[in-house]
Design brief:
Elements lengths: L1 E9 L2 E10 L2 H18 L8 E6 L5 E6 H7 L1
Antiparallel strand pairs: 1-2, 1-3, 3-4
């Protein structure tokens, strides 16, 4: 099982980092989308300001970014 890390980012500045074990990259992307939706619903102050959930692999390389604004519109 791979370990991916999720960051709440404001453009390029990390505000919060958490790690979660998931089976694969697709699950990591799905979890990032769920986190973005949860933040959009519960933390309205982050909307419209360019915040996103970034997904990092075990090596610390960002492999995906899920916009909180997009999650709010689709969620």
């Amino acid at each position: 099982m791979s370990h991916y890390h999720f960051r709440l980012v404001d453009h390029d500045r990390a505000l919060s980092v958490t790690g979660r074990p998931v089976d694969d990259r697709d699950q990591a992307f799905a979890l990032a989308k769920r986190l973005a939706i949860d933040i959009a619903e519960s933390r309205q102050e982050f909307l419209g300001k360019g915040y996103a959930v970034a997904v990092l692999n075990d090596a610390g390389t960002e492999i995906h970014r899920e916009s909180i604004d997009s999650a709010e519109k689709s969620g």
